Every structure is written in C-alpha cells, then in structure tokens.
Amino acid sequence: MMAIKDEGTPVAPSTRPKILYLDAYDSFSNNIIAQVEQSIGADVSKLFIDDSRFRANSEPDRAEEPLSLTEYLKDFDAVIAGPGPGWATDEKDVGLMQDLWKLERDDLLPVLGICLGFQSMAVAFGAETTTMIEPRHGVVSDILHKGHSIFSNVDQLLATQYHSLQVSIGHAIQTKRAVRYPGELWEATELCPLLEPLAWDFDNKKNGAVLMALRHTEKPFWGVQFHPESICTNKEGANIIQNWWESAMTWNTKRALSQTVELVVEPLAAGAPLTMDRLRDVWGLSYRDAVHGKKRKLNAISSNKSFDEAVREVVEFEKQREAPRKIANIILYGDDKTVKGYEPEMLHCATTGSGRLTVSNVCEIFEVQRSEAIVLESGLQSDLLPLKVGTGRYSIIGLIIPGETLRLHYYSDTKTIQLRGGEDEVVFETVVQDVWFAIKTIMQRLKPRHTPSGPTFAPFWGGLVGFASYEAGLETINVVPSERLKDEPIVPDICFAYVTRSIVFDHQVKKIYVQSIRGADDRAWVMDAIDRIYDAVGQKSVVTTPSSSPASNPFDSIPQNPILDAYLRSGKAVLADSFDYESRVRECQHFISEGHSYELCFTTQNRVEYRKMDAFDEDIMSGELSWKLYNRLTKQNTAPFSAYMRLHNMHILSSSPERYISWDRNGSAQCRPIKGTVQKRPGVTAVDALAILSSPKERAENLMIVDLVRHQLHGVYGAGNVHVSQLMEVEEYETLWQLVSVIDAVPHGVRGKARTPEEWEEPADYISGKKASLNASNQGYEAFVNSLPPGSMTGAPKKRSCEILKELEGNKRRGIYSGVLGYLDVGGGGDFSVVIRTAVKIESDNDSDKDVWTIGAGGAVTAQSTPQGEYEEMVGKFNSTSRPFKL
Ligand SMILES: C=C(O[C@@H]1C=C(C(=O)O)C=C[C@H]1O)C(=O)O
Ligand SMILES: NC(=O)CC[C@H](N)C(=O)O
To answer: Which residues form the Chorismate-utilising enzyme C-terminal domain (predicted)?
Structure first.
C-alpha cells in the first residue's frame, strides 16, 4: 500500500533518542515500537529487512548507488532487530539484520535482538538454531534469569513466547541436560565464548532448558527470545527494555567520551578535564554529534529526496486521486446520462419508537425481498434487546432503489474499479493502483460539508454498504491473490452500494431512524416512510397483546410453504474430505514447527446443493427464496452480525458472530477478534466450555490474535492509544461457545467511548461526530484498511501465514468468505464483521439444474492442534450455518 501522509506543520527537531527498528515482517512489531516509545521516550523509525534501497540495483536505468546500512545507522542511537518468520540462518528471513553483528569500532552501536533478532545475533557469534520438540506460540513462561545486565532489578518474569526454533550454544544444560554447579548456567561456552547466557526457560519438560537471553561480552549487543511487548508478558517486560536502554546509553556515553578524546585531543591539550558538558559548552556539540561527527550531515543529505523526485511523487499522488474524484463527482452531481447525482449535504431524519416491530417486519413493509437489498442485522434476544452489550446495538436496512442506486465494484485481478448505475450498468471504469486510497478519496468527497442538523445519533447516515473479499485484503499486504478458476463465475472483490435511504434500528433504546441523504426533495419520502413504520408499530402492539393468538399476527406467522420445503428437502451437503483436511492441518503444523508461522487459520469451502428453485416453481423469484433462507438462518443461528445482501450476481446470507472493526465519527475504534471454539453438544455444559476455553491451547490461539490486532492498531494510533478492554472472555452463541477479546483504540486527544449510562442511552456529540472536524484524517478508516485481511482469518505473522495458506488451500480464492462486510458512513464512521458462518450463492449463466450455496469454514491451527479436532471444529462451524438450510 502506498502510504500518503498529510503535510504537517514543521516541528522543531526532536531531542529524543532515535532508535531504528528492523522489521522482519512480523505481526507484533508495532507493539514493540509502542513499548519502546513509551518506556524510554524514544522516537522509533521502522525499516524492513529487505528494503531495496540497500540492495545493489539490478535495474539498468536506475544507476543510484545502494545506500550503506553503516552510514544510515549513523543517524540512530540504537537498533532493535525484531521477531519474524523463518530462520536466522536464511538470508532472506533476516536480511539487513545480519549486517548489524558485523559492525566494528566507530560504526558499532547498541542492538537489542528480539526472538528472530535474538537468534540472528546468536548465530552470528557461533550458535546454532534447531527446531524445538514442542513449539511455543502464545504461551507464557516463568523465566529463570540471572538478575544481571538487562535483568537487573527484574522480579519474577512471566513472558509470552512465540517461537518454534531455539538457540543452541552447546551449553551443558542443552547437551547433557545437566550442569555441575548452578553458576555454570550463566557461563559462556566453548562454541560461543563471547555470548553470556542471561536467562533460561525450564517450563517445558520435553524441550528441556531453552535459552532465553544473551549478551555479547565485548560488543553492545543483547538479545531476548521471548516477547517483552506481549499483552500477557508481565510488567517486567517494560523493565527489561528500560534496562537495555540504560546499558545502551552507558555504552554510548563511554564511547562518545573515548571518541571525543581522539577528536579534540589537540585543542584541549592544555589540561581542562573532558566531560560531555564541556564538549557541549566549548564546541556546541550534542552527544550524538560527538559520536557521529560529520557523517550525520552526509547521511541526511543522501536520504533527502531530490527536487525532481519530490515533484514526481506529488504528480503521482494527484494522478491517483483523479479517477476517484471523478467517481465521486458523478455520485454527487450526476453524469447527464443515467445518473442523477445526490449531494449528501442534507440529512433528513425522522425517528419513532420501534415497539415490538422487528427488522424483518420493516424489511417486509418495504419489500426488500423483491429486489436487490442490504440488511445488516443485530440478532436479538427474545425480549428484543441486543444479544451482547457493545455489539448488536444497531441494525441497518440499506434500501436499494431499483434503477437508481449506484454501486462500486472492484476486481483485484485487473485492478479495475467501476462505478455502476441503477441497472447495474458500468458508468465509469478505470484501473487504480490502490483501491483503498481510491475509496478513501471518494468517501472524503461524499462527506457532508456541515454536520447535519436534527437527530444524528444513528451511527450510519448513509454511505457505502457491502463487502470486501479476502483477496482484496491480501493486496494490502502485498500477497498476490490466487487466480480465479476458469469456470468460476466472476464476483467482484469489493462491492459497495451507495445507500442514500436507510432505516436504522437502535435496539438498546428501541428507536427507529428513517434517513435520507438524497437532498431537500426527499423529505417527503422520509415522512411517508416514518408514517408507515409508525402505523406498523401500532398494529404490532395490538396484535401482540396477550389476548391475540399467534396465528392472527400478520407479521410473525410462518406460512406453510410446500415449495420451500421441497427445495430444502432436495439439499445435499458436500463437505471437505476429512482425510485431505486432516493432512493439510498436519502440513500447517509442519510449517509451524519449522518456524515459518505461529498460527495458521486454515479453511475450506463446503457446499449445500439443491435442485434449482424454478425446477419447483417458475413463479418464485430466487431473491425471495434467499430472503426466506435468511430468515431461517437468523432464527436458528442468531448472531450479532447477521447480514443479508442481494446485489449483482450475489446472494450473501451471514450469521457472523465476529466484529472485524468498528469506529465512530471521531475515529475511536474497536476490534473483537474471536479465537477459541467449543461446540455445544449434549453433555457439554457451560462450565465444561469454560474449562476447555481456559486451556493453554485455546488461550494461546486467542493471545496471538490479540497481540496481532494490537500491532495493527498501534501502527495507526500510536503508543499509548491502544487498550485491551476484554481479554479472552467466553461468549455463548446459538451452537458454540467462543473466546472473545476486545481491543480499543482512541485517537490522541479524543474522548473514548460512552462511559456513563446517560452517554450510552443518548450517544452524545462525540458519537454524532459533531465535535470531530469533518476534515480530520480518519484513523478509523486507516485502521480498517491496515488490518486487512482480518487477522483471525490468517494467523500470525500475517504475510508469511497468508502465503502458506494460499498454497495449502490449493490456490483457491476464499472470495467473500474470510473477507469483511459492513458500511462506511458518509459522516466518517464504519462497522464491519468478519465474513464467517455465511452462505454465498453466485448466479451463473450455466444451465445446471443445481443451486449451489457455498459455506466456508475453518479454524486456527497451532502446534497443539489435533488434525481430527480441527476437522470436527470446522464441521461444527459449517453445521451452525447449514442447519437452517435443511428441513
Ligand atoms: C474460520 C472460522 O472462524 C474463525 C476461527 C475461529 C477459531 O479458530 O476458533 C473462531 C472464529 C473465527 O475467527 C470459521 O468460522 O469458518
Ligand atoms: N517470533 C519469532 O521471531 C520467531 C523466530 C523463529 N521464526 C522461530 O519460530 O523460532
């Protein structure tokens, strides 16, 4: 993705220490950066281990010399070599890291290696890396340490580990599993005489003693195998970082003094004692200048862009904005052919109490089942209150106006974005470099110029509603999506309808908002719609009084439908083959034990096949059939993120329990990853489920994703603005128990979510966005894009895991399953679910007499998984969705 930064106001150069972070494509890097920034008040810059500027250039027309890492480092006070997939002995996996350990004399600077970085340091000084008997990912160990060096004043250390490989320095405790006397544990070995052991882990009997930390006895290099930044490492993690920084500073100061003696020996020969203060007074030299001398200047010049380059970048940026601006202009002002254009300047909104009226009732009043439609529905309890506090408060019916509603499509294989008109015809089409930048540009233009007057508490006023496929997400992390199969019907990778009329339920306070952003003329529609709803609320309250019999309720009676029954009876489930599935799970585990991944969310696509509806009755439209199936699904697998989407050639019926991300108009975001699943079965009680979900295996699965989500949010919101507000709590769903965590991010200087009951009842200005500058950069959107594809569907580290999964899933596209579904509100908010527990039907031109619904399912594979257990878990998830599809 191209990161485009807004120009900020110039700031005075910082006097804070500067640290370089070498990123080996890990999914926890930003947590380390945030921890370092917070615990030592440093500015940390990130550099990827394979940054091409440091490589000799093979392109003939680019004659520039590669940058020298040694020169580049002159600008920093210290380096952190981070974790990552793969092996320290593999150049591709460690890249620039391996050059750190070769630095000599004046070029030397302090380094902290973490995990892969630690392994890389050890290998550079004679150690070997080997696989462990039991990989350790997302597990917390009680680490034995020497209380010395970076462990001084460190109390009991409970630290999270994410590694499959270990460092062997040929220590007796490793080779013979014994030492002659306790002190031997802390002695260097013949194999690695310059490496002093600082910590060991004895927690896992099979693995024996695993080396946890080292320091180089002559150079300023330290390393730890565990993850000091994980949410489950205790506070000693930060203590170790501070200790490292102190050691690094001490080393730097000593070196500065020794160097400056050389530098200034002549003029000071007269005698005065040399101190840092004196250096500063006499020559105006800062401590860093003293260390790095003139080279710093040289480096600053070489890293500055040339004028031509800067101009090229600006032109490129503007070019990228051209097409999305054009699309936004057509949406806003029409195209003097078919598109009329609606400026969302005005929001018309009317409200009424919802009484006992359900989302489904309102859908039927507006006949959404008759044509294309989008419904984002929060499943409710029988008292019509949200299933879960915090999710499931709102439901949104996005009305598709036949012949008018515009849509955006994007196809990742051709990188084409299309604006389609009300008849689904292409109005404008172009190739874009970065579709998410294009959508951001469009949304910025669609933002109302003034905060709408009147009641604006609904989180959605209007905007883009739809989905993005898993493959659209892969693009953002530079993983090339699998190709479409030849006979596969073409489905857009992003499909959003531009919803201008909507009905929003607030289930918490039982209120309905009817809204339009179609300009002044649409007030009449709003008033008419609210009248219809108002009448229906009244009617429903009459028919649901105790005296009325259920059958007399015109809304909720389920009419007998022999055609639907016949259709359902013709259904046949086609499940992934267990032998094949289990052998793929084993392959996943092989990649894990070889250190290439910590957790892999392996998935497959199952099907339910029916005889086509029109084989039963020509009169029943397939849209209505989908609607009926959807109603069965929401009744039998009630979920906080149910969704019905009928657009283009797609029918999407979702019963997802999982929030991907939501953010309000001020940019406060929340992610709710789910990881850890127990199926409800006879004999399995809630207590049993709690016990299973409290096991290290399930907690490890969840922890990895929590750390991954923190990393993603830290990358956008920065240190100190990301908090875990719920860590691994068991939530009950219709057919499963799940382990759920909640991670919140609040932009710097913005108040967080509702804290008092009053704020919860009537969301105040900060939720309505009144206080947010309408031009403020939207961190919520950035976090949404930067977190694709959803981490709970990939595993960690994300990039390498996605590459592995692509291969193990037979280079088949996951498509809509595993993607995200929800809305981007014109006011700047958004809410998306992870597309799981979802049935998808794609209409195709072939004349098959079969109707095929695809239901993807899978689960996180870890080193502790059993192949059979994983298969059963996958089938359990499939069943939760397919059950309503059977009679
Ligand atoms: C892969 C699926 O679910 C994902 C995997 C889960 C797990 O491994 O426990 C739980 C929820 C989802 O993030 C699915 O439902 O198909
Ligand atoms: N988290 C890490 O850096 C892991 C390093 C290495 N890939 C291992 O699995 O041991």
So the answer is: 580-745, 771-877
Q: Helices then strands (H, E): number in the chain? A: 25, 33
Query: Separation of 136 CA from ligand 2 center, angstroms?
Result: 9
How far apart, in whole angstroms, are the C-alpha atoms of residue 37 and residue 696?
A: 31
299 and 333 share one domain: no
Query: What single-letter DSSP state applies at residue 605?
Result: E
The domain in which residue 277 lies consists of: 18-57+64-303
**Shared domain check, 340 and 289:** no
- What's the complex ipTM? 0.97
- The reply to whether ligand 2 has any atom less than 6 angstroms from the CB of 442 is no
Cβ pair 845, 596 in contact under 8 A: no
What residues are paired with 515 via a beta bridge? 349, 502
d(CA 226, CA 207): 15
What gap in Å lies between CA 656 and CA 232, rounded to an integer?
Answer: 28
The CATH number given to whatever domain includes residue 656 is 3.60.120.10
CA–CA separation, 347 vs 452, rounded Å?
A: 6
- CA–CA separation, 820 vs 608, rounded Å? 22
Overall residue count recorded for the chain in this entry: 887
294 has pLDDT over 90 = no
**Structural domain includes residue 566:** yes
Q: Is 165 in the pocket of ligand 2 (CB under 6 A)?
A: yes
- Mean pLDDT, residues 39-49 taken together: 95
The single residue of 137, 145, 163, 227 carrying the catalytic annotation is 227
Q: How far is the CA of 424 from the centre of ligand 1 (A)?
A: 33
Q: Is 674 in the pocket of ligand 1 (CB under 6 A)?
A: yes
Closest residue CA from atom 14 of ligand 1: 857
Residue type, 357: L
Helix (H, G, I), strand (E, B) or coil at 548: coil
The residue to which tokens 């009053």 are assigned: 758
Our mutation pick for probing the ligand 2 site, out of 90, 128, 132, 162, counting the most ligand atoms within 8 A of Cβ, is: 162
Phi, psi values for residue 661, rounded to 5° = -155, 145
Q: Which atom of ligand 1 is nearest to the CA of 705?
A: 13
- In contact, 241 and 36? CB cutoff 8 Å: yes
Instruction: Please give the Cα distance from 423 to 337 (Å, whole number).
Output: 13
Phi, psi of 266 (to 5 degrees): -65, -65
Tokens of 381: 């309890």
84 lines ligand 2 (CB under 6 A): yes
- Is 554 part of any domain? no
> Element (H or E) spanning 573, and its range?
strand 572-574
Ligand 2 centroid distance, CA of 85 (Å): 5
Establish if 826 belongs to a structural domain: yes
**Same structural domain for residues 208 and 341?**
no
Sign of the dihedral through C-alpha 782, 785, 786, 792? positive
Q: Tell me the CA distances in angstroms from 272 to 264, 286, 293, 831, one per residue in order.
A: 12, 19, 22, 67
Quote the ligand 1 centre to 792 CA distance (angstroms): 7
Which atom belonging to ligand 1 lies closest to the Cα atom of 877? 15
677 lines ligand 1 (CB under 6 A): yes
Q: Which one, of 820, 742, 748, lies nearest residue 785 by Cα?
A: 820
Burial class (CB in 10 A: 0-12, 13-18, 19+), 352: middle
In the chain, the number of structural domains is 2
Residue 451: φ, ψ to 5°: -65, 130
- Tell me if residue 229 is catalytic: yes
Taking only the tens place, the pLDDT of each residue in 592-629 is 999 999 999 999 999 999 988 665 554 455 568 899 99
Report d(CA 181, CA 230) in Å as an integer.
Answer: 33
User: Active site residue: 115, 192, 349, 671, which one?
Assistant: 115
Beta bridge partners of 79: 20, 111
Distance, CA 275 to ligand 2 centroid (Å)?
43
Number of other residues whose CB lies within 10 A of the CB of residue 631: 18
Nearest to 196 by CA among 263, 122, 133: 122
